[in-house]
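Moderator note: this is an archived Q&A kept for reference. The question asked for a predicted structure of one protein chain; the sequence and the answer are reproduced below.
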Amino acid sequence: METENEDELLDTVMEGCRLPVKMSGTDEWPLAEIISIKDGKKQFYVHYIDYNKRLDEWVSRERIDLTKLQPPVKREAKKGNRPPSPDASRRNQSGRKRKILHGAAAESQQAKASRQVAKLHGMPMSDMGACLPDGTDDSMKDLPMDVDEPGGAATADALPATPQQNLRKGGSMVQHTGHDDTVTRIKNVQCVELGQHRIQPWYFSPYPQEWCNLPCIYLCEFCLKFCKCRTSLVRHREKCTLYYPPGNEIYRKDDISFFECDGRKCRQYAQNLCLLAKLFLDHKTLYYDTDPFLFYVMTKFDDKGFHLVGYFSKEKESSEDYNVACILTLPPYQRKGYGKLLIEFSYELSKFEAKTGTPEKPLSDLGLLSYRSYWSDAILEILAEQVKKGNPTNPPLICINEICEMTSIRKDDVISTLQHHNLIHYYKGQYVLSLNKEVIDTHLRSMSKRKIRIDAKCLHWTPRDWSKRGKW
């Protein structure tokens, strides 16, 4: 009798339903939403409510609790925590639509991605399926490839925000009736091997379907070409002449190097880098127009070559003086200080350009934490030095604009960081900065953990005025 009841409940399960699901590696049963169903309702792709989408997974019937099934309820999409900035909206109206991992295209992004990858690797379209995850209907293959927009570090300036752009990590499928978001919410790559590391992807990336059906995609760690098996990779490495990113090395200190790669001159490498990055950046739409961007690739050197650690991209011409469009540290190198090193390097370039910079807004949750940590360190480092120069009877004087000039951090970011730490106060008709011993001690502990820093003396780079060039 109990089995019959369960079968009846199972018949009512559909995409958008919510129910408790046993999370992998734990004994917890958090509430989850069903995103997709395959194998005759034997496998369910679920998103855990209030958890990051990188934890989404396929689960079997035994891991779902049908007794607490909640039917899908249609409701208006909630606005994101950080809506697109007015600056981005102004650029949207101006008609600029080119973006690497951002925005939406008028034609089907799914079809475009497939054509671009096919062209990139010399494959006929007949041999290549749309980049859909297993268990997805064939009828969905021509749907657009829109993804929630606020990006891995910085994002959107292509088109006005849509409901799916506002659906962040807790976004419900039933809030948006189209299926285009469903396709890209399901991880389609099981594993990638890059050098000595095997990495489980976090999100969808439009690799060709025949690669997505493989247990692992093998990447050349120098040119980032993807292969179906290790034998193919070995044959490729015998022919590949690259042992470093195909650009100009503009920085080297110890075993850390930065290479500047032009998205137009190194188009194939830039597109391969975007495909790899999309596996770990959620709210992005992969867009193959890399020409308007520069890619700054950070590597670690050993006797085998220069190994990819992370990168950031920036526009050649940015009307808003953004110094970062996308930023990523690969998972094997995270929590080791490399992310903050990438951010520091982007501001070092801004210092060479003699202007303040900021990442594209809105920032993702992880991006905001990383940037706020860097901003705090940079600002408190200057304030601590000023305190040493002053004395109790004659406190040091410094204004916000001076902090901006010394750090190249935009004024809005300086003020928001000071407010976050409750360091700026209104006193007797003017704003004053107040530092206490606890704040300084916390800063010193944070700085002591930063073993690697950017040395401006090791940066050999000359800023270019791209607006004066007829063609990139």
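Archived answer notes: The longest helix spans residues 365-389.
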